[in-house]
Protein backbone atom coordinates (compact mmCIF):
# COMPACT_ATOMS: atom_id res chain seq x y z
CA UNK A 1 0.00 0.00 0.00
CA UNK A 2 1.16 3.53 -0.67
CA UNK A 3 -0.44 5.25 2.34
CA UNK A 4 2.70 7.23 3.13
CA UNK A 5 3.06 8.44 -0.46
CA UNK A 6 -0.58 9.52 -0.66
CA UNK A 7 -0.43 11.30 2.70
CA UNK A 8 2.74 13.17 1.80
CA UNK A 9 1.36 14.43 -1.50
CA UNK A 10 -1.94 15.48 0.06
CA UNK A 11 -0.48 17.36 3.04
CA UNK A 12 0.99 20.84 2.63
CA UNK A 13 4.64 20.43 3.72
CA UNK A 14 5.02 24.09 4.72
CA UNK A 15 2.00 24.03 7.03
CA UNK A 16 3.06 20.65 8.43
CA UNK A 17 6.45 22.16 9.28
CA UNK A 18 4.68 25.06 11.01
CA UNK A 19 2.55 22.61 13.00
CA UNK A 20 5.70 20.85 14.21
CA UNK A 21 7.22 24.20 15.21
CA UNK A 22 4.04 25.23 17.05
CA UNK A 23 3.91 21.88 18.86
CA UNK A 24 7.43 22.41 20.21
CA UNK A 25 7.46 26.18 20.80
CA UNK A 26 3.83 26.78 21.84
CA UNK A 27 2.41 23.40 22.79
CA UNK A 28 5.37 22.26 24.87
CA UNK A 29 7.72 25.25 25.19
CA UNK A 30 10.34 22.53 25.31
CA UNK A 31 13.38 23.47 27.40
CA UNK A 32 17.07 23.02 26.69
CA UNK A 33 18.15 19.57 27.84
CA UNK A 34 14.60 18.32 28.38
CA UNK A 35 13.74 14.83 27.11
CA UNK A 36 10.59 14.27 25.06
CA UNK A 37 8.34 11.20 24.74
CA UNK A 38 6.12 11.07 21.63
CA UNK A 39 3.26 8.66 20.92
CA UNK A 40 1.70 8.55 17.46
CA UNK A 41 -0.06 6.45 14.84
CA UNK A 42 2.52 5.04 12.45
CA UNK A 43 0.85 7.00 9.61
CA UNK A 44 1.92 10.22 11.40
CA UNK A 45 5.61 9.45 10.85
CA UNK A 46 6.14 12.59 8.66
CA UNK A 47 4.98 14.81 11.54
CA UNK A 48 6.96 12.85 14.14
CA UNK A 49 10.12 13.41 12.10
CA UNK A 50 9.50 17.16 11.89
CA UNK A 51 8.66 17.47 15.58
CA UNK A 52 11.80 15.53 16.44
CA UNK A 53 13.85 17.92 14.30
CA UNK A 54 12.35 21.01 15.94
CA UNK A 55 12.71 19.45 19.40
CA UNK A 56 16.44 18.95 18.89
CA UNK A 57 16.71 22.46 17.42
CA UNK A 58 15.15 23.68 20.69
CA UNK A 59 17.81 21.81 22.67
CA UNK A 60 16.01 18.56 23.54
CA UNK A 61 18.10 16.02 25.40
CA UNK A 62 16.60 12.85 23.93
CA UNK A 63 13.47 12.33 21.82
CA UNK A 64 11.84 8.89 22.00
CA UNK A 65 8.82 7.94 19.86
CA UNK A 66 6.35 5.06 20.27
CA UNK A 67 4.05 4.07 17.41
CA UNK A 68 0.64 2.40 17.16
CA UNK A 69 -0.47 0.48 14.07
CA UNK A 70 -4.06 -0.23 13.10
CA UNK A 71 -3.31 -3.56 11.40
CA UNK A 72 -1.58 -5.01 14.45
CA UNK A 73 -4.33 -3.68 16.73
CA UNK A 74 -6.95 -5.52 14.67
CA UNK A 75 -4.79 -8.66 14.64
CA UNK A 76 -5.21 -8.86 18.40
CA UNK A 77 -9.01 -8.88 18.12
CA UNK A 78 -8.93 -11.43 15.31
CA UNK A 79 -6.44 -13.91 16.74
CA UNK A 80 -5.51 -13.29 20.40
CA UNK A 81 -6.65 -15.66 23.17
CA UNK A 82 -9.41 -14.39 25.42
CA UNK A 83 -7.14 -13.62 28.38
CA UNK A 84 -5.13 -11.22 26.20
CA UNK A 85 -7.84 -8.59 26.66
CA UNK A 86 -7.13 -8.29 30.38
CA UNK A 87 -3.49 -7.39 29.77
CA UNK A 88 -1.69 -4.11 29.12
CA UNK A 89 1.91 -2.93 28.81
CA UNK A 90 2.30 -1.79 32.40
CA UNK A 91 6.09 -1.90 32.08
CA UNK A 92 5.90 0.73 29.33
CA UNK A 93 3.69 3.11 31.30
CA UNK A 94 5.77 2.66 34.44
CA UNK A 95 8.79 3.65 32.36
CA UNK A 96 6.96 6.70 31.05
CA UNK A 97 5.98 7.68 34.60
CA UNK A 98 9.64 7.45 35.65
CA UNK A 99 10.63 9.58 32.65
CA UNK A 100 8.04 12.22 33.56
CA UNK A 101 9.18 12.16 37.18
CA UNK A 102 12.67 12.80 35.82
CA UNK A 103 11.51 15.87 33.88
CA UNK A 104 10.58 14.54 30.43
CA UNK A 105 7.86 16.27 28.39
CA UNK A 106 4.97 14.44 26.71
CA UNK A 107 3.60 14.89 23.20
CA UNK A 108 0.77 12.82 21.71
CA UNK A 109 -0.19 12.90 18.05
CA UNK A 110 -3.87 12.07 17.57
CA UNK A 111 -5.10 10.61 14.31
CA UNK A 112 -6.32 7.07 14.83
CA UNK A 113 -9.24 5.75 12.81
CA UNK A 114 -12.15 6.58 15.15
CA UNK A 115 -14.14 3.59 13.87
CA UNK A 116 -11.32 1.05 13.99
CA UNK A 117 -12.96 -1.16 16.62
CA UNK A 118 -16.59 -0.51 15.66
CA UNK A 119 -17.13 -4.10 14.51
CA UNK A 120 -15.28 -5.76 17.40
CA UNK A 121 -16.78 -7.41 20.49
CA UNK A 122 -17.75 -4.52 22.85
CA UNK A 123 -16.91 -6.67 25.89
CA UNK A 124 -13.38 -7.28 24.63
CA UNK A 125 -12.96 -3.59 23.75
CA UNK A 126 -14.11 -2.61 27.25
CA UNK A 127 -11.80 -5.13 28.93
CA UNK A 128 -8.80 -4.00 26.91
CA UNK A 129 -9.59 -0.35 27.62
CA UNK A 130 -9.94 -0.98 31.35
CA UNK A 131 -6.68 -2.92 31.52
CA UNK A 132 -4.92 -0.17 29.59
CA UNK A 133 -6.41 2.55 31.82
CA UNK A 134 -5.24 0.76 34.97
CA UNK A 135 -1.74 0.29 33.59
CA UNK A 136 -1.58 3.87 32.30
CA UNK A 137 -2.56 5.45 35.63
CA UNK A 138 1.00 6.11 36.94
CA UNK A 139 1.82 8.06 33.78
CA UNK A 140 -1.63 9.66 33.42
CA UNK A 141 -1.43 11.10 36.93
CA UNK A 142 1.74 12.99 36.00
CA UNK A 143 -0.13 14.45 33.02
CA UNK A 144 -3.54 15.16 34.58
CA UNK A 145 -1.90 16.71 37.65
CA UNK A 146 0.19 18.94 35.34
CA UNK A 147 3.46 17.77 36.84
CA UNK A 148 4.94 18.17 33.36
CA UNK A 149 4.53 20.20 30.18
CA UNK A 150 2.52 18.22 27.64
CA UNK A 151 0.76 18.69 24.33
CA UNK A 152 -1.55 16.99 21.83
CA UNK A 153 -1.63 17.78 18.11
CA UNK A 154 -3.11 15.85 15.16
CA UNK A 155 -2.12 14.35 11.84
CA UNK A 156 -4.53 13.48 8.96
CA UNK A 157 -4.22 9.71 8.98
CA UNK A 158 -5.89 8.44 5.76
CA UNK A 159 -8.20 6.06 7.64
CA UNK A 160 -9.39 8.95 9.84
CA UNK A 161 -9.84 11.20 6.81
CA UNK A 162 -12.10 8.65 5.13
CA UNK A 163 -14.36 8.55 8.20
CA UNK A 164 -14.68 12.36 8.19
CA UNK A 165 -15.12 12.61 4.40
CA UNK A 166 -16.47 9.19 3.34
CA UNK A 167 -17.62 10.34 -0.11
CA UNK A 168 -14.25 11.66 -1.25
CA UNK A 169 -11.30 9.79 -2.78
CA UNK A 170 -8.66 9.08 -0.14
CA UNK A 171 -6.12 11.68 -1.27
CA UNK A 172 -8.76 14.42 -1.44
CA UNK A 173 -10.12 13.41 1.98
CA UNK A 174 -6.61 13.60 3.47
CA UNK A 175 -6.09 17.03 1.91
CA UNK A 176 -9.37 18.40 3.29
CA UNK A 177 -8.74 16.99 6.77
CA UNK A 178 -5.17 18.33 6.74
CA UNK A 179 -6.37 21.82 5.82
CA UNK A 180 -9.01 21.68 8.57
CA UNK A 181 -6.37 20.62 11.12
CA UNK A 182 -4.03 23.41 10.00
CA UNK A 183 -6.77 26.06 10.20
CA UNK A 184 -7.94 24.95 13.65
CA UNK A 185 -4.32 24.86 14.83
CA UNK A 186 -3.68 28.37 13.45
CA UNK A 187 -0.72 27.22 11.35
CA UNK A 188 -2.32 28.53 8.15
CA UNK A 189 -1.45 32.04 9.36
CA UNK A 190 1.73 33.98 8.60
CA UNK A 191 2.92 33.93 12.24
CA UNK A 192 1.26 31.06 14.13
CA UNK A 193 3.30 31.63 17.30
CA UNK A 194 2.07 35.25 17.55
CA UNK A 195 -1.49 34.15 16.73
CA UNK A 196 -1.39 31.68 19.61
CA UNK A 197 -0.14 34.38 21.98
CA UNK A 198 -3.14 36.58 21.06
CA UNK A 199 -5.57 33.66 21.35
CA UNK A 200 -4.20 32.73 24.78
CA UNK A 201 -4.82 36.30 25.92
CA UNK A 202 -8.48 36.06 24.87
CA UNK A 203 -8.98 32.75 26.66
CA UNK A 204 -7.27 34.12 29.77
CA UNK A 205 -9.68 37.06 29.86
CA UNK A 206 -12.63 34.62 29.86
CA UNK A 207 -11.19 32.52 32.65
CA UNK A 208 -10.31 35.65 34.66
CA UNK A 209 -13.94 36.81 34.48
CA UNK A 210 -15.25 33.44 35.59
CA UNK A 211 -12.75 33.28 38.44
CA UNK A 212 -13.85 36.73 39.56
CA UNK A 213 -17.51 35.70 39.66
CA UNK A 214 -16.87 32.71 41.99
CA UNK A 215 -19.97 30.81 40.88
CA UNK A 216 -21.19 27.99 43.08
CA UNK A 217 -22.71 26.12 40.14
CA UNK A 218 -23.58 26.31 36.44
CA UNK A 219 -27.10 25.63 35.17
CA UNK A 220 -27.39 24.27 31.61
CA UNK A 221 -30.81 24.36 29.90
CA UNK A 222 -31.74 23.30 26.38
CA UNK A 223 -33.40 20.51 24.41
CA UNK A 224 -33.13 17.36 26.52
CA UNK A 225 -31.00 19.20 29.08
CA UNK A 226 -31.72 20.61 32.53
CA UNK A 227 -28.48 20.16 34.42
CA UNK A 228 -27.03 21.85 37.49
CA UNK A 229 -23.25 21.33 37.75
CA UNK A 230 -21.94 22.25 41.17
CA UNK A 231 -18.37 23.54 41.10
CA UNK A 232 -15.64 22.21 43.37
CA UNK A 233 -14.71 24.19 46.47
CA UNK A 234 -11.81 26.47 45.59
CA UNK A 235 -12.14 25.70 41.88
CA UNK A 236 -10.15 27.73 39.37
CA UNK A 237 -10.92 28.29 35.67
CA UNK A 238 -8.19 27.84 33.07
CA UNK A 239 -7.97 28.23 29.32
CA UNK A 240 -5.24 28.20 26.69
CA UNK A 241 -1.73 28.21 28.10
CA UNK A 242 -1.14 26.74 31.57
CA UNK A 243 1.93 26.63 33.78
CA UNK A 244 2.86 23.13 34.87
CA UNK A 245 4.30 22.27 38.27
CA UNK A 246 7.74 22.17 36.64
CA UNK A 247 7.37 25.90 35.93
CA UNK A 248 6.99 25.55 32.16
CA UNK A 249 4.02 27.25 30.46
CA UNK A 250 2.50 25.00 27.79
CA UNK A 251 -0.59 24.77 25.60
CA UNK A 252 -1.72 21.19 26.31
CA UNK A 253 -4.28 21.04 23.48
CA UNK A 254 -3.75 22.34 19.96
CA UNK A 255 -6.34 23.33 18.92
CA UNK A 256 -8.20 24.73 21.93
CA UNK A 257 -11.16 27.08 22.27
CA UNK A 258 -12.26 26.15 25.80
CA UNK A 259 -12.13 27.51 29.30
CA UNK A 260 -12.57 24.75 31.88
CA UNK A 261 -12.67 23.91 35.56
CA UNK A 262 -13.44 21.14 38.04
CA UNK A 263 -17.04 20.26 38.98
CA UNK A 264 -17.90 19.01 42.46
CA UNK A 265 -18.07 15.23 42.20
CA UNK A 266 -21.04 15.05 44.60
CA UNK A 267 -23.05 18.06 43.44
CA UNK A 268 -24.34 17.40 39.91
CA UNK A 269 -28.11 17.05 39.49
CA UNK A 270 -30.49 16.67 36.56
CA UNK A 271 -30.36 15.32 33.03
CA UNK A 272 -28.34 16.16 29.94
CA UNK A 273 -28.23 15.10 26.29
CA UNK A 274 -25.19 15.03 24.03
CA UNK A 275 -25.17 17.36 21.04
CA UNK A 276 -22.47 15.56 19.04
CA UNK A 277 -21.44 11.90 18.75
CA UNK A 278 -18.60 10.65 20.95
CA UNK A 279 -15.98 8.52 19.27
CA UNK A 280 -14.41 6.39 21.99
CA UNK A 281 -11.74 3.75 21.35
CA UNK A 282 -13.13 2.87 17.93
CA UNK A 283 -16.82 2.94 18.89
CA UNK A 284 -19.25 5.71 17.99
CA UNK A 285 -21.55 6.58 20.91
CA UNK A 286 -24.40 8.82 19.76
CA UNK A 287 -27.39 10.59 21.30
CA UNK A 288 -26.22 10.07 24.86
CA UNK A 289 -28.78 10.81 27.57
CA UNK A 290 -27.83 10.57 31.23
CA UNK A 291 -29.38 11.50 34.57
CA UNK A 292 -27.40 12.54 37.64
CA UNK A 293 -28.33 12.20 41.29
CA UNK A 294 -25.92 13.31 43.99
CA UNK A 295 -23.22 13.81 41.39
CA UNK A 296 -23.50 10.25 40.06
CA UNK A 297 -24.94 9.02 36.77
CA UNK A 298 -27.83 6.74 37.74
CA UNK A 299 -29.27 6.26 34.26
CA UNK A 300 -27.56 6.26 30.85
CA UNK A 301 -28.86 5.70 27.33
CA UNK A 302 -27.52 6.09 23.79
CA UNK A 303 -28.97 5.40 20.36
CA UNK A 304 -25.62 3.90 19.26
CA UNK A 305 -22.87 2.38 21.38
CA UNK A 306 -24.96 2.11 24.55
CA UNK A 307 -23.27 -1.14 25.61
CA UNK A 308 -19.83 0.44 25.36
CA UNK A 309 -21.03 3.56 27.20
CA UNK A 310 -22.28 1.47 30.12
CA UNK A 311 -19.06 -0.54 30.20
CA UNK A 312 -17.14 2.76 30.42
CA UNK A 313 -19.38 3.92 33.27
CA UNK A 314 -18.61 0.70 35.14
CA UNK A 315 -14.83 1.24 34.98
CA UNK A 316 -14.83 2.49 38.59
CA UNK A 317 -16.99 4.67 40.86
CA UNK A 318 -15.40 7.86 39.56
CA UNK A 319 -16.35 6.99 35.98
CA UNK A 320 -19.97 7.93 36.76
CA UNK A 321 -18.97 11.34 38.09
CA UNK A 322 -17.64 14.48 36.41
CA UNK A 323 -14.02 15.58 36.34
CA UNK A 324 -14.34 18.61 34.05
CA UNK A 325 -16.82 21.17 32.76
CA UNK A 326 -15.78 23.35 29.82
CA UNK A 327 -17.31 26.34 28.05
CA UNK A 328 -16.90 26.88 24.29
CA UNK A 329 -18.89 29.35 22.16
CA UNK A 330 -20.96 27.84 19.36
CA UNK A 331 -19.25 30.31 16.99
CA UNK A 332 -15.81 28.81 17.60
CA UNK A 333 -13.78 28.27 14.41
CA UNK A 334 -14.13 24.49 14.71
CA UNK A 335 -17.90 24.74 15.10
CA UNK A 336 -18.12 27.14 12.15
CA UNK A 337 -16.19 24.70 9.96
CA UNK A 338 -19.24 22.44 10.07
CA UNK A 339 -16.98 19.38 10.20
CA UNK A 340 -17.64 16.52 12.59
CA UNK A 341 -14.11 15.26 13.23
CA UNK A 342 -15.00 12.13 15.24
CA UNK A 343 -12.04 13.16 17.37
CA UNK A 344 -12.52 14.64 20.84
CA UNK A 345 -9.55 17.01 20.53
CA UNK A 346 -11.47 18.85 17.79
CA UNK A 347 -15.12 18.17 18.52
CA UNK A 348 -14.83 19.29 22.15
CA UNK A 349 -13.68 22.68 20.85
CA UNK A 350 -16.87 23.09 18.83
CA UNK A 351 -19.12 22.80 21.87
CA UNK A 352 -19.44 23.17 25.62
CA UNK A 353 -18.67 19.82 27.17
CA UNK A 354 -18.31 17.76 30.30
CA UNK A 355 -15.87 14.97 31.08
CA UNK A 356 -16.49 11.74 32.92
CA UNK A 357 -13.79 10.67 35.33
CA UNK A 358 -10.51 12.13 36.54
CA UNK A 359 -10.34 15.81 37.46
CA UNK A 360 -7.40 18.15 36.90
CA UNK A 361 -5.71 19.17 40.16
CA UNK A 362 -4.54 22.23 38.22
CA UNK A 363 -8.12 23.56 38.39
CA UNK A 364 -7.96 24.41 42.09
CA UNK A 365 -6.62 27.50 43.79
CA UNK A 366 -3.06 26.58 44.83
CA UNK A 367 -3.69 23.19 43.22
CA UNK A 368 0.03 22.38 43.04
CA UNK A 369 0.24 22.33 46.83
CA UNK A 370 -2.89 20.25 47.48
CA UNK A 371 -2.71 16.58 48.43
CA UNK A 372 -5.01 14.03 46.81
CA UNK A 373 -6.97 13.89 50.05
CA UNK A 374 -7.50 17.67 50.00
CA UNK A 375 -8.57 17.59 46.34
CA UNK A 376 -11.11 14.86 47.14
CA UNK A 377 -12.38 16.79 50.16
CA UNK A 378 -12.94 19.87 47.97
CA UNK A 379 -14.97 17.85 45.46
CA UNK A 380 -12.36 16.70 42.96
CA UNK A 381 -13.09 13.38 41.27
CA UNK A 382 -10.71 10.45 40.87
CA UNK A 383 -10.95 7.79 38.16
CA UNK A 384 -9.00 5.69 35.71
CA UNK A 385 -10.73 7.49 32.81
CA UNK A 386 -11.17 11.03 31.51
CA UNK A 387 -13.64 11.16 28.62
CA UNK A 388 -15.05 14.41 27.21
CA UNK A 389 -18.43 14.59 25.49
CA UNK A 390 -20.32 17.49 23.99
CA UNK A 391 -23.44 19.07 25.48
CA UNK A 392 -23.45 22.57 23.96
CA UNK A 393 -25.21 24.03 20.92
CA UNK A 394 -26.85 27.21 19.69
CA UNK A 395 -29.95 26.14 21.65
CA UNK A 396 -28.29 25.84 25.07
CA UNK A 397 -28.28 28.57 27.73
CA UNK A 398 -25.97 28.65 30.76
CA UNK A 399 -26.40 30.60 33.98
CA UNK A 400 -23.85 30.99 36.73
CA UNK A 401 -25.35 30.52 40.20
CA UNK A 402 -23.89 32.54 43.06
CA UNK A 403 -23.73 31.25 46.66
CA UNK A 404 -26.78 33.41 47.52
CA UNK A 405 -28.79 31.74 44.73
CA UNK A 406 -28.74 34.70 42.34
CA UNK A 407 -28.12 33.97 38.66
CA UNK A 408 -25.76 35.61 36.17
CA UNK A 409 -26.10 34.91 32.41
CA UNK A 410 -22.96 33.16 31.15
CA UNK A 411 -24.09 31.97 27.71
CA UNK A 412 -27.21 32.53 25.64
CA UNK A 413 -27.95 30.33 22.60
CA UNK A 414 -24.40 29.03 22.75
CA UNK A 415 -22.64 32.41 22.82
CA UNK A 416 -20.99 34.35 25.63
CA UNK A 417 -23.60 36.55 27.28
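Sequence proposed for the structure above (417 residues):
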Amino acid sequence: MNIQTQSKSAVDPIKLEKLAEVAVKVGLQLQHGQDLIITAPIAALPLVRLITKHAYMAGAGLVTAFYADEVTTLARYAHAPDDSFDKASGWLYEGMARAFAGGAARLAIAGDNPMLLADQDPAKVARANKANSMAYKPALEKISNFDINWNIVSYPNPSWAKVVFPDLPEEEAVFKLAEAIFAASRVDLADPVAAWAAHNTTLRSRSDWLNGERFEALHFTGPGTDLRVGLADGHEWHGGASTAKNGITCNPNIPTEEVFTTPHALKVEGHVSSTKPLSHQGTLIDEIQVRFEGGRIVEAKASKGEAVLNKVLDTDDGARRLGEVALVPHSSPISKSGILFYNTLFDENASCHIALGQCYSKCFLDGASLSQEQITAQGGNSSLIHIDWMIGSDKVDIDGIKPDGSKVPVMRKGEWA
